[in-house]
């Protein structure tokens, strides 16, 4: 394995970590209706836990409402039950064909809980970035030990990996701060 391969792999893994973080925080409520906030909800579909978006069509007709129209009307009760039992604090209403999910305004206490959750997600992703750095550094040190690269090359490569790490952690922090501001913003 060459120094360039190690750096490229580290960069790709750090990018994947950022993509995963963006996906993870997209499902955090901000007071606005967003279909991705329902991504974690699983519905009992004939004994198999199935993602809500696999058994119903989801729409956002208004800024504070999501609608779920099941493809199989017999699932309406199971969908409603799954949404109620989720930790999102939502209270769905059904009219026999469509489930309307009003998104209530967030109170200050719930906003603080969401910010705490967001900080936890951000820290998990910072740790993941550091783990990628550690793996890259270990590979570089092994190349040095095997005399495949010189000390200067190792030092330069370690510095570049550290720069990538710093940049990725800054992106995690910036993304987290932006989402935190969005959550705490009163509408």
What does this structure look like?
The chain has 187 residues and is an alpha+beta fold. It has 2 domains: 3-27 and 107-184, Topoisomerase I, Chain A, domain 4, CATH 1.10.132.20; 35-102, Gyrase A, domain 2 (2-Layer Sandwich), CATH 3.30.1360.40. Helix content is 57%, strand content 14%. The protein contains 4 helices and 6 strands. It has helices spanning 3-26, 76-85, 108-145, 151-184, and strands at 42-45, 48-51, 56-62, 65-70, 93-94, 99-102. It has a 4-stranded antiparallel β-sheet with strand order 3-4-6-5, with helices on one face. Helix 1 runs antiparallel to helix 3 (108-145), helix 1 (3-26) packs parallel to helix 4 (151-184) and helix 3 runs antiparallel to helix 4. It is elongated, with a radius of gyration of 22 Å. The termini are far apart. The model has no long low-confidence stretch (mean pLDDT 88).
Structural descriptors:
187 residues; alpha+beta; Topoisomerase I, Chain A, domain 4; Gyrase A, domain 2; 2 domains; 4-stranded antiparallel sheet; two-stranded antiparallel ribbon; 4 helices; 6 strands
> How confident overall, as mean pLDDT?
88
The low-pLDDT segments are none
| N/C terminus separation | 53 Å
* Count of beta strands: 6
Computed Rg:
22 Å
Q: Per the principal axes of the C-alpha atoms, what is the gross shape?
A: elongated
Total number of domains: 2
Content of β-strand? 5-15%
Number of helices: 4
The fold-level CATH name of the largest domain is Topoisomerase I, Chain A, domain 4
Order of helices and strands: HEEEEHEEHH
What is the multimeric organization of the chains shown? single chain
Question: Could you give a short account of the major beta sheet?
Answer: 4 strands, antiparallel
CATH architectural type of the largest domain: Orthogonal Bundle
What is the CATH C-level name of the largest domain?
Mainly Alpha
Structural class: alpha+beta
User: Helix coverage percent of residues?
Assistant: 55-70%
So, the CATH homologous superfamily of the largest domain?
Answer: Ribosome-recycling factor
Strand order of the largest sheet: 3-4-6-5
């Amino acid at each position: 394995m060459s120094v360039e391969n190690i750096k490229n792999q580290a960069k790709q893994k750090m990018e994947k970590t950022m993509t995963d973080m963006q996906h993870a925080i997209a499902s955090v409520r901000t007071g606005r209706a967003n279909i991705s906030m329902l991504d974690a909800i699983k519905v009992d579909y004939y004994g198999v836990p199935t993602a809500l978006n696999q058994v119903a069509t989801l729409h956002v007709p208004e800024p504070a409402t999501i609608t779920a129209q099941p493809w199989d009307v017999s699932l309406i009760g199971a969908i409603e039950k799954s949404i109620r039992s989720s930790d999102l604090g939502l209270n769905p209403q059904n009219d026999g064909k469509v489930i309307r999910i009003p998104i209530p305004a967030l109170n200050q206490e719930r906003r603080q809980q969401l910010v705490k959750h967001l900080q936890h997600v951000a820290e998990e992703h910072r740790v993941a970035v550091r783990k990628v750095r550690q793996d890259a550094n270990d590979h570089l040190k092994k190349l040095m030990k095997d005399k495949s690269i010189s000390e200067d090359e190792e030092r330069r490569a370690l510095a570049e990996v550290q720069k990538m790490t710093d940049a990725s952690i800054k992106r995690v922090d910036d993304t987290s701060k932006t989402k935190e501001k969005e959550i705490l913003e009163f509408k």
